[in-house]
Design brief:
- Helix 1 runs parallel beside helix 2 (about 65-80).
- The protein has a single domain (about 5-255), classed as Alpha-Beta Barrel (TIM Barrel), CATH 3.20.20.
- The strands form three sheets. The chain has an eleven-stranded mixed β-sheet with strand order 1-16-15-14-10-7-6-5-2-3-4, with helices on one face. It has a three-stranded antiparallel β-sheet with strand order 11-12-13, with no helix packed on it.
- The longest helix has 14 residues, at about 65-80.
- It has helices spanning about 40-50, 65-80, 95-100, 120-130, 165-170, 195-205, 220-230, 250-255; strands at about 5, 5-10, 15, 30-35, 55-60, 85-90, 105-110, 115, 120, 135-140, 140-145, 150-155, 160-165, 180, 210-215, 235-240.
- It is an alpha/beta fold and about 260 residues long.
- It has eight helices and 16 strands.
- The chain starts with a strand and ends with a helix.
- The radius of gyration is 17 Å and the shape is globular.
Amino acid sequence: MKFRPCIDIHNGQVKQIVGGSLVDDNNQATENYTSTQSASWFAALYKKDNLKGGHVILLNSKESEYFQATKAQGIEALRAYPGGLQIGGGITADNALEYVEAGASHVIVTSYIFAEGKFVESNLEKLANAVGKDKVVVDLSCRKKDDNYYVVTHRWQHFSTMKLTHENMNRLANYCDEFLIHGVDVEGRSRGIEEPLVGFLGQVGRESNIPITYAGGVGSLEDLYRFKEISGGTLDITIGSALDIFGGSIPYEKMAML
């Protein structure tokens, strides 16, 4: 288990939000924390502590009036820590190389590989061909519906038809280097992890070699220990709102030493 840091950018600022609250109308989100520091400041901190594989997430849509400011912050973070960070948010086969050339180790994709909620394998293949399979992370962030977990797209606002299953993950693994999975229903709430989801992902992690990073719900060190127990130590973890650098109580320095 490794700690993966994060830099979430919304309306041109580094923030921590409640994941399920994000909507495109008027660029709204329920905010847990808004930083006075830039994205590049956090990138430099992670570089100093040699924390690799962190996620820069652009939370505005391309149609938003804030998108360019949000993107500029993301590019600055990549340039501050070249090769150390991944980036997601509006990634397509057409723009992925721009982010890699700016310093991203990987690009993170969800919405581009779904059309009207249905998986479009050819788009994922195009992306893998554009930058290389070894630079692609597939984000399978999900919400529960009818006792199953379904991938959600477009800043977690829309359900896709894809269930989170071992079979589907094996299929997607042909085109990517890693998976990133937020438990959206608990993301940003700091009230505990999505235990059934962590248990499932832990089983997948034990049976495959592809790295999987989970995010969502960690609010205390006890939650972290529970995560390690349920996952069997096979998953990496991202913590945002609960860290003291984002207004929470978990010491960043402790996580940086994992």
